[in-house]
């Protein structure tokens, strides 16, 4: 469900040490993403991704470095007290 609902684009702009990319929610469910680890990327610790919408991320990152960002989905449960997880790589 989650892997088909949330789609993260390739970066479409690199400017002044920041990479810009989009996260698209293709479902009718609003997702709340909680970052697994804190960092200095500029991605908020909590991101609300409204249904059938896109959010633009401004990520502080060098263009030749690949970084994985991992989230727990606050409103999607896959077991007893276990949230679904979602990750994407920015290159």
Quick gist of this model?
By secondary structure, the chain is mainly beta. The protein has one domain (2-90): Immunoglobulin-like (Sandwich).
Describe this structure in words.
Strands 1, 2, 3 and 6 form a four-stranded antiparallel sheet that branches. The radius of gyration is 13 Å and the shape is globular. The mean pLDDT is 93. Helices cover 4% and strands 58% of the residues. It is mainly beta. Strand 2 (13-15) and strand 3 form a beta hairpin. The protein has a single domain (2-90), classed as Sandwich (Immunoglobulin-like).
Q: Any key phrases for this structure?
A:
single chain, 91 residues, mainly beta, Immunoglobulin-like, four-stranded antiparallel sheet, globular
- The first-level CATH class is given as Mainly Beta
Approximate shape: globular
Helix % is under 10%
Predict the CATH topology.
Answer: Immunoglobulin-like
Count of discrete alpha- or pi-helical segments spanning 4 or more residues? 1
Domain tally: 1
Instruction: Calculate Rg over CA atoms.
Output: 13 Å
Structural class based on helices, strands and sheet pairing: mainly beta
Q: How are the secondary structure elements laid out?
A:
Layout: H1 2-5, E1 6-8, E2 13-15, E3 18-25, E4 31-35, E5 46-49, E6 53-60, E7 67-79, E8 82-90
Antiparallel strand pairs: 1-3, 2-3, 3-6, 4-5, 4-7, 7-8
């Amino acid at each position: 469900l989650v892997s088909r609902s949330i789609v993260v684009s390739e970066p479409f702009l690199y400017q002044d040490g920041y990479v810009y990319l989009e996260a698209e929610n293709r479902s009718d469910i609003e997702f709340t993403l909680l970052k697994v680890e804190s960092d200095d990327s500029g991605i908020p610790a909590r991101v609300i991704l409204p249904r059938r919408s896109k959010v633009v991320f401004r990520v502080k990152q060098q263009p030749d470095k690949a970084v994985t960002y991992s989230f727990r989905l606050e409103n999607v449960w896959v077991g007893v007290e276990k949230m679904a997880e979602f990750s994407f790589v920015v290159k």
